[in-house]
């Protein structure tokens, strides 16, 4: 039996925020399709580099959202506040990346990559949670996460 802390609600809300992120990026791609005249089912434009960057940013987010949600959910069991903070940082980096992909400045475009640090932090939180569940270490915050057999 697993008892979750009240703070796990932050993790749930962060997961909901990731849904809003995906919808926002999808809207940006639809808007760019009209602006740069890229009809379905084409995924890329031969004429517009900006459209291709917008599409690529959306695709990268879609490719990483499943591991993100897994790591957020599992890491949040043991570290709900930290996982939620890292998750919001990752979401924020995807928004920065979405805005930066429309700018020609390469330095601005690199700022969105800082979210990979947050994703790695979520990986470490999940790793720690796995160790606690297996009994390899004691929970850092026993009042937040209890495994009862």
Give short descriptive properties of this protein.
5 helices, two-stranded antiparallel sheet, Four Helix Bundle (Hemerythrin (Met), subunit A), 149 residues, mainly alpha, 2 strands
The SS-based structural class is mainly alpha
Just give the CATH class: Mainly Alpha
| Tally of strands | 2
Strand content: under 5%
Main sheet characteristics:
2 strands, antiparallel
Note the gap between the termini: 6 Å
SSE order: EHHHHHE
Family: Belongs to the MAPEG family.
Main location: mitochondrion
Subcellular location: Mitochondrion outer membrane
Enzyme class: lyase
Structure description:
Helix 1 runs antiparallel to helix 2 (49-78), helix 2 packs parallel to helix 5 and helix 3 (80-100) runs antiparallel to helix 5. A two-stranded antiparallel sheet has the order 1-2. The protein has helices at 8-36, 49-78, 80-100, 106-110, 115-134, and strands at residues 2-4, 145-147. 29% of the residues are buried. The protein has one domain (2-147): Membrane associated eicosanoid/glutathione metabolism-like domain (Four Helix Bundle (Hemerythrin (Met), subunit A), Up-down Bundle), CATH 1.20.120. It has 5 helices and 2 strands, in the order E-H-H-H-H-H-E. The protein is elongated. By secondary structure, the chain is mainly alpha-helical.
């Amino acid at each position: 039996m697993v008892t979750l802390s009240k703070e796990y609600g932050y993790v749930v809300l962060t997961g909901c925020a990731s849904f809003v992120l995906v919808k926002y990026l999808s809207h940006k791609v639809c808007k760019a399709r009209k602006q740069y005249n890229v009809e379905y089912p084409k995924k890329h434009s031969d004429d517009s580099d900006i459209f291709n960057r917008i599409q690529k940013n959306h695709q990268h987010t879609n490719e990483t959202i499943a591991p993100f949600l897994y790591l957020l959910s599992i890491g949040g069991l043991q570290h709900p506040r930290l996982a939620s903070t890292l998750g919001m940082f990752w979401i924020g980096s995807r928004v920065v990346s979405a805005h930066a992909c429309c700018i020609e400045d390469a330095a601005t475009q690199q700022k969105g990559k800082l979210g990979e640090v947050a994703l790695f932090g979520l990986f470490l939180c999940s790793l720690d949670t796995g160790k606690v569940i297996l009994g390899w270490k004691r929970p850092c915050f026993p009042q937040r996460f209890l495994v009862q057999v």
